[in-house]
Design brief:
GO terms for molecular function: lyase activity; nickel cation binding. Keywords: Lyase, Nickel. It holds the Pfam family Ni_insertion. This is Putative nickel insertion protein. This protein has 399 residues and is of the alpha+beta class. The chain folds into three domains: 2-235, no CATH class; 246-327, Transcriptional regulatory protein pf0864 domain like (Alpha-Beta Plaits, 2-Layer Sandwich); 329-395, mk0293 like domain (Ubiquitin-like (UB roll)), CATH 3.10.20.300. It has twelve helices and 18 strands. It has a five-stranded mixed sheet. A four-stranded antiparallel sheet has the order 13-14-12-15, with helices on one face. Strand 6 and strand 7 (161-165) form a beta hairpin.
Length: 399
């Protein structure tokens, strides 16, 4: 397993990300061969060494004839689905374009099926996003971490005319993710760059381990206040019993909320991005029984969740503390059974498969649909999953 850390001090775009992957060792000819599997022509990939503020990296760009054809999201998705790309590359690329399509649909107030891309449907954007999926697959990158993103201010130009920076689609894609004001009037984080980070990365501090291979993807701007580079650190496989990441723990003592209010609060917390939340019985001052609420979340979500706790319970304060969690890796898959489809979680210690677990909601649905005991459905789903395990491991690159 390889882990990539993105140091986005000057933002991220699709071409910067591909330039970074090339600088980290992505085989350019192999990348071109994979891209040739798409029914897209009349373009040329250019990769060269350039410097920004004296730091050298790889500049990735696409030259193509002017394209006035506005491709719809459904056309792009079908093109990718029917391509001969690897399953992982295909799945990632389709995720990228769906995320971008949903953002464009939200911004313009239409359904995703009505979205007709301009920049996104252009040849260079198709190459950037599909190339990123191919590069992740070819380099064997299984995990991506990212620093907070620097957003720009001002007005930018696009096919729709003048738009505020950051672009509306970029803001939509990055909801709930950590950002800060860069003070720059050039577009540092593009919609394609935001899409890549949203679909691939977790936002964390720099990993506490030996620095691996370092690469730089070069952007198109010449900026006075910073080098227009995307720095990445590629860490080779390092066996640890579990994966560790930074989280925040929120706690509050609650003694005068009803059970209905407490149940509703848990649902709201999970909907707002809590990783875990639970109540612990508590004996409080004046001999009052109460509840200790404990919430685990990503640091970027802590303020939102703390505010939600105080708005939707009797709590008048919330404690927070940074901490780390150790966890197994998991892959969620859907399998076919004699009762119908059901979700299953596959649990791994890096590349070592440990066990699997059937999804409760799906098992409950099947149990009620077929009037069977829930325990019996659990056994049937998990037995079916074990029967299909060799294929499932292959599909998740753990064969």
């Amino acid at each position: 397993m390889k882990t990539l850390y993105l140091d986005t001090f000057s933002g991220i775009s699709g071409d910067m990300f591909l330039g970074l992957l090339c600088d980290l060792g992505l085989d350019v000819e192999q990348l071109k061969a994979e891209l040739a599997k798409l029914p897209v022509s009349d373009y040329q990939v250019n990769i060269k060494r350039e410097r920004r503020h004296g730091i050298e990296g790889c500049r990735f760009s696409v030259n193509h004839q002017e394209d006035h054809h506005h491709r719809s999201w459904s056309h792009i998705d079908q093109m990718l689905a029917e391509s001969h790309l690897s399953e992982r590359s295909k799945e990632l690329a389709r995720r990228f374009f769906r995320r971008l399509g949903e953002a464009e649909a939200k911004v313009h107030g239409i359904s995703i099926d009505e979205v007709h891309f301009h920049e996104v449907g252009a040849v260079d954007a198709i190459v950037d996003l599909t190339g990123a999926a191919i590069g992740i697959d070819l380099l064997g990158i299984n995990k991506v971490f990212c620093s907070p993103l620097p957003l720009s201010r001002g007005i930018g130009q696009c096919a729709h005319g003048a738009l505020p920076l950051p672009a509306p689609a970029t803001v939509e894609i990055l909801q709930g993710r950590p950002v800060y004001d860069s003070g720059c009037d050039k577009e540092l984080v593009t919609p394609t760059g935001a899409t890549l980070v949203r679909e691939l990365a977790e936002f964390t501090p720099l990993p506490d381990r030996a620095v691996g291979r370092v690469g730089y993807g070069v952007g198109g701007w010449e900026l006075a206040d910073r080098p227009n580079l995307l720095r990445g650190i590629l860490y080779a496989q390092e066996h640890q019993p579990t994966t560790s990441d930074a989280v925040e723990l929120l706690e509050s003592h609650i003694d005068d909320s009803t059970p209905e209010q407490l149940g509703d609060l848990l649902e709201r917390l999970f909907e707002a991005g809590a990783l875990d939340a639970a109540y612990v019985p508590l004996q409080m001052k004046k001999n009052r029984p109460g509840q200790l609420l404990k919430v685990v979340c990503q640091p970027a979500h802590s303020q939102t969740l703390a505010t939600l706790i105080m708005h939707h319970s009797s709590a008048i304060g919330v404690r927070s503390q940074p901490c780390h969690r150790y966890r197994l890796q998991r892959h969620e898959v859907t399998i076919a059974t004699t009762l119908g489809t059901a979700g299953v979680k596959l649990l791994f210690d890096h590349d070592q498969f440990l066990r699997l677990s059937a999804e409760y909601d799906d098992c409950r649905r099947l149990a009620r649909q077929h009037n069977l005991p829930l325990q019996q459905v659990y056994r049937l789903v998990e037995n079916s999953a074990y029967d299909q395990l060799p294929q499932l491991l292959k599909e998740t690159n753990h064969d």
